[in-house]
Amino acid sequence: MSPDNFSPLAFSVLDLAPIAADSTPADTFRHSLDLARRVEQLGYTRFWLSEHHNMASVASSAPVVLIGHIAGGTTTLRVGSGGVMLPNHAPLVVAEQFGTLASLYPGRIDLGLGRAPGSDQVTAQAIRGSRFGGAQDFPRDIQQLQTYFSPANATSTVRAIPGEGLDIPLYVLGSSTDSAYLAAALGLPYAFASHFAPGQLFPALEIYRQNFRPSAQLAAPYVIACVNVVAADTDAEAQWLSTSLQQFMLGVIKGRPAPLQPPVESMHALWEPAQQHAVGQMLAYSFIGSKATLQRDLQEFVDQTQADELMAVSTIFSYEARVYSYELLPQVLRNIAHSQPEAGLVSREQPKGNKR
């Protein structure tokens, strides 16, 4: 097939801001900034930070603060939320916060929005208070955000200043077909959490593309697929490093997330068969191995999903090994091309900001 039948694949980072067993949140934040600076030089498109609460393994409970920290320490990298869990926050406050970020770092801020609590239900109650049913308001809250960012809102009684009229692209995050329908109806780019909830990936992508309605932000569907990546010089080393990720997910399943643990030679003594099966299902789209192995497996994934962009999570205990994994990934992805799909199904154009 000729080169004209292929188009480049964007690649990005989702940083969970993991807290390793031998470190503190302050160490994590220093590593996040250093990693962002490194991946900026490696050609990564964006660097997103997640929102999680009450987790001893994750330091990203305040992504808006971390986004400012990362954006202030980089120059060209797009920085954003992967995502802001919108039911936890009033849309006006989110609009003002991201309006402030976009004013400080124009053209570099993304606002990814999710409907999950990013925590257990007891913690969600503590965060949301009287807004505990806010997940049901997710579609309306996104539209309210769009209104606050719109220049047309200048005559409204309630305005987002800063925020009003700024170019802040919105992204719908999801792990189900519900989010796919919503992203399609609103004409927004769609980021699927296949790094921990892979079950509905393909039905969701089909629904999103078939039901997509063009919007002022996006003319055609744009899909970001988030996947786990553990890259190393050999398959054996990558498999060994990946046991930290397996322990991380095991803690999630048990409801007892602990700081990120060092690799082990065998997981056999750490989990029961049912737990092993559950972790395996959650990590179905994890790409672990040498460059050759990753190239083979990621090429197949890209061919199947026709994703416009891959967003990599590298949950690796050693910070140096994590950096190296992110260094190897672009070497793999630049050798991966995806064939042009049928007209209208996928757009390679980067999403624009809110122009409503």
DSSP summary, beta strand count: 11
Helix/strand order:
EEHEHEHEHHEHEHEHHHEHEHE
Number of domains: 1
Strand content: 15-25%
What topology does this entry show?
Blueprint: E1 6-7, E2 10-15, H1 25-41, E3 46-49, H2 63-72, E4 78-85, H3 91-104, E5 109-114, H4 121-128, H5 138-149, E6 170-174, H6 177-186, E7 190-192, H7 201-211, E8 223-231, H8 235-241, H9 243-254, H10 273-282, E9 286-289, H11 291-305, E10 309-313, H12 319-333, E11 338-339
Helix pairs in contact: 1-12, 3-5, 6-7, 9-10, 11-12
GO molecular function, one term: oxidoreductase activity, acting on paired donors, with incorporation or reduction of molecular oxygen
InterPro entries: Bact_Lucif_Oxidored, CmoO-like, Luciferase-like_dom, Luciferase-like_sf
Family: To bacterial alkanal monooxygenase alpha and beta chains.
Short description:
With 356 residues, this protein is of the alpha/beta class. The chain has 12 helices and 11 strands. An 8-stranded parallel barrel has the order 2-3-4-5-6-7-8-10, surrounded by 9 helices. Strands 1-11 form a two-stranded antiparallel ribbon.
